[in-house]
Amino acid sequence: MRRYGVVSVALVGTVGAVGAVAGCGGGSGGGGRGTAGSAGVGDPYFPGLGNGGYDVSHYGLTLDYAPAGRHLDGTAVITARATQDLTSFHLDLAGMDVASVTVDGRRARVGRAGTELVVRPREELGRGATFRTVVRYSGVPRRVTDPDGSAEGWLGSGPRVVALGEPTGSMVWFPGNHHPSDKASYDIDITVPAGTEAVSNGELVSRRTSGGRTTFRWRTAEPMASYLATLAIGPYRVHEVKGPLPLYTAVDPAAGRDGADLVAALPGILAWEEKAFGPYPFSSAGVIIGRKADAGYALETQNRPFLPGPTDVGTLVHELAHQWFGDSVTPESWRDMWLNEGFATYTEWLWAADHGGVPVAESFAEAYDDEENWAFPPADPPTAADISEPPVYGRGAMVLQRVRDAVGDATFFRIVRGWARTHRHGNASTADFTAYVEKESGGRDLSGIWDGWLYGDGKPRL
Predict the structure, then answer these.
(1) Which of 46, 2, 14 is nearest to 335 (CA)?
(2) For a FRET experiment, which of 75, 240, 265, 368 has its CA 20 to 30 Å from that of 348?
(3) Could you tell me if 37 and 88 are in contact, meaning their C-beta atoms sit under 8 angstroms apart?
(4) Checking DSSP bridges between strand 151-157 and strand 2-3, what pairing results, if any?
């Protein structure tokens, strides 16, 4: 993600009174061995995000959007596997009215507490069991204010909407396990007024118009973290290219000529990044270019990043790099954000060297001289408000350049490609990265880089 500024919006609270939908969840059913799944996975910055006790394998979302009232009707079919004996479990959902919840076809008892939907099945779920939860819900999805003041969630109004979810906004438009450590495949059916485009992740399976409404069916077969799921609804001009790597692009006419230029640049950027990082990790690619007013930043939504136009090639290079670093290799927790942004920023440096005549050493020196990059260590942001601040980007990229200086070009790029390949479609932490680099560099001791550049409080001397 590349932040452009702060958008002032109303804050969505995370604590509220419990309101029963059909009874309250929790407790043991019938004296079994099960316990309640935890509310949150203990993320260091968002401890209430995600849920314990199960692992989601697939989301099937059927959505109907009415622009006039900004109203969304939804049915979420969530297929998951219990990782413990469960009497109840949580789903993250902010706002929205819940009409019913079933588990394996039977009505479940449900309670709500803030952004937690507490589901108690009729019978306990045994560890290892696969179960299917269906949630029927509706309402006007909200905007969320991030700790850093920027806006996410359901952005826009009327005929133009974009759903962006980093780090918590996806919970405003569908219920789920909204932490990056739980990735899943997706089918998203979205119905909108005829003449309006609805763009999401993955591949467009079908498009059908009836009675003045058009339903788009999108499928994402590869695992995806929920914060990377998106919907872009509006008067987009779409362009589809068939081939070994299908390309699907959508450009808002308000984005101007820059949108067409970026669409033309897309294949060349992807080919250049494949040469640097290895095979593109997904079965399709593209870009969504909206208006500047749609969001205050670009985001690496899977398969096709969202960019508010007019914008530039450097931003597209950055967001496409995330398809390897962030989308395919996803952080284990939000503390590992620098593994996303450090790599994407470093990719911009590589592009500038290859296409702009700016040596990487010059980009490094500029970042080194920028005092904003020394506010805190990239691998240990002090608060949730800091995970998208300059040290995560600029100092994160400097860490990679120091590794390159230490191991040499050939070994460095072999490590980068191997990292993307080894953790493809998985999750990885900073500890995983440092251990991998040291192993693949022949057991070289790189503790000086980790201590001084990755975790250190001060500004290391060159």
Answers:
(1) 46
(2) 240
(3) yes
(4) unpaired
Task: Return the number of other C-beta atoms located less than 10 Å from residue 458's C-beta.
Answer: 8
Q: What's the CA gap between 10 and 428, in Å, rounded? A: 33
Residue 257, phi then psi, degrees to nearest 5: -65, -30
Instruction: Tell me, rounded to whole angstroms, the distance of Cα 403 from its chain centroid.
Output: 27
pLDDT beyond 90 at 404: yes
* Tokens linked to 286: 């593209």
What is the Cα–Cα distance from 195 to 236, expressed in whole angstroms? 10
Q: What gap in Å lies between CA 225 and CA 307, rounded to an integer?
A: 19
Handedness of CA 372, 377, 383, 389 (dihedral sign): positive
DSSP H helices in 278-429: 313-321, 338-355, 360-369, 390, 396-407, 409-422
Distance CA 395, CA 319 (A): 18
Through-space distance between the first and last CA atoms of the chain, rounded to whole angstroms: 29
Helix or strand run (H / E) with residue 263: helix 257-277
How far is 57 from 183, CA to CA, in rounded Å? 7
Amino acid occupying residue 68: A
Q: Is 254 exposed, middle or buried (0-12, 13-18, 19+ CB in 10 A)?
A: middle
Residue that is written with structure tokens 């990229």 in the block = 397
- What would the two tokens of residue 414 be? 């072999």
Backbone angles phi, psi at 210, to 5 degrees: -155, 135
Identity (one letter) of the amino acid at 205?
V
CB burial of 378-401 (b: ≥16 within 10 Å; e: otherwise) equals: bbbbeebebbbbbbbbbbbbbbbb
Q: Read off the pLDDT band of 39 (50, 70, 90).
A: very high
